[in-house]
Amino acid sequence: MTCDDEERQERASGRAPDETAPDAVTCRALRYAFGETRAVDGVDLSVRPGEVFGLLGPNGAGKTTAIRCITTLLPVPSGMVRVFGHDAAKERMAVRRLLGYVPQQLSADAGLTGRENVALFARVFDVPRRERAARVTQALEAVGLTEAAGRLAKTYSGGMIRRLELAQALVSAPRLLMLDEPTIGLDPIARTSVWEHINAVRAATGMTVLVTTHYMDEADQYCDRLALMHRGRIRALGTPDELRSALRARRRAAAASPTAPTSPSAAPAPAAAASCHSSPSPSSHSSSSSSPSSAPSGSSDAVPTLEDVFRDVAGSGLDEQSGDFRDVRSTRRTAHRVG
Ligand SMILES: Nc1ncnc2c1ncn2[C@@H]1O[C@H](COP(=O)(O)OP(=O)(O)OP(=O)(O)O)[C@@H](O)[C@H]1O
């Protein structure tokens, strides 16, 4: 079946998104395996409209595979994925029309100018011909590349290339922007710049952002809610503050009970994850990671970092299982090309 056939079938079936309260993204029991490797192993996830949602995890955790299922680039062999109420397995075209996607691998063409790159995406994403020029200009402006728009992309810095890819994804005015490691390989100033542009567009348009990252500090600073992923599963979910508070409470309980495990990483991951599944409110976190604490790190009174939370919920398998050679090589290749 061609995409056009599928689109016609979707229209004919009269399926409409749930108007009452569709989440931007819903995953239920999502599974995806590459042969014996269970890359995504039963993921439940809801991303609310308008929030910046971070999917965190080490190399090989399953973040990219989950993202690809949501974008419809991979099928949904088991479980359910919905984007604004549309079923990603059955309504691929409807889902794609709502999405902007910046993959981890670079997608800009070095031999084209910035403007040509964005114009190409405008054509690919079927932006109406009469609107194209204006939308390309707007997208370039939104990421601060107006002046550099006439230069070949191969003359751009790593940060400019990432912003160009952001413009490519924004030109179709997506309701959901999906970014896979958008700042990998960038220096701190370029990282901040990419995030500032994402936030500015989000504030202006109300779009939802789903981002994967390894960087805990970025997740803490820029994401409303986070899901910590490890070995294909979501191990904890909440606002950064909620995740920290839950760990602090677990540490206090452990300190108060002589039989409880004393080391956070010795705590059983499923129990820890369950206690992190609270009911967060978007945009409610404040950056308490920088809160002063006189207690020593790891004591029940210290304010935990997100990394502490991750180590707690992932358990002792984090270090030895944080990605095989293939995963690390792919990440390094991206970082090298951007940097
Ligand atoms: N095309 C593929 N063929 C075989 N195995 C794959 C393929 N893509 C991913 N995998 C495996 O699936 C698992 C999850 O990989 P995935 O790329 O989704 O993780 P990730 O969290 O996005 O990692 P990274 O941060 O390195 O991008 C890993 O064990 C990986 O080796």
Automatic annotation (TrEMBL):
<feature type="domain" description="ABC transporter">
    <location>
        <begin position="25"/>
        <end position="256"/>
    </location>
</feature>
<feature type="compositionally biased region" description="Basic and acidic residues">
    <location>
        <begin position="8"/>
        <end position="18"/>
    </location>
</feature>
<keyword id="KW-0547">Nucleotide-binding</keyword>
<dbReference type="GO" id="GO:0005524">
    <property type="term" value="F:ATP binding"/>
</dbReference>
<protein>
    <submittedName>
        <fullName>ATP-binding cassette domain-containing protein</fullName>
    </submittedName>
</protein>
<dbReference type="InterPro" id="IPR003439">
    <property type="entry name" value="ABC_transporter-like_ATP-bd"/>
</dbReference>
<dbReference type="Pfam" id="PF00005">
    <property type="entry name" value="ABC_tran"/>
</dbReference>
<feature type="compositionally biased region" description="Low complexity">
    <location>
        <begin position="254"/>
        <end position="300"/>
    </location>
</feature>
<dbReference type="InterPro" id="IPR017871">
    <property type="entry name" value="ABC_transporter-like_CS"/>
</dbReference>
<dbReference type="InterPro" id="IPR003593">
    <property type="entry name" value="AAA+_ATPase"/>
</dbReference>
<feature type="region of interest" description="Disordered">
    <location>
        <begin position="1"/>
        <end position="20"/>
    </location>
</feature>
<keyword id="KW-0067">ATP-binding</keyword>
<feature type="region of interest" description="Disordered">
    <location>
        <begin position="247"/>
        <end position="339"/>
    </location>
</feature>
<dbReference type="InterPro" id="IPR027417">
    <property type="entry name" value="P-loop_NTPase"/>
</dbReference>
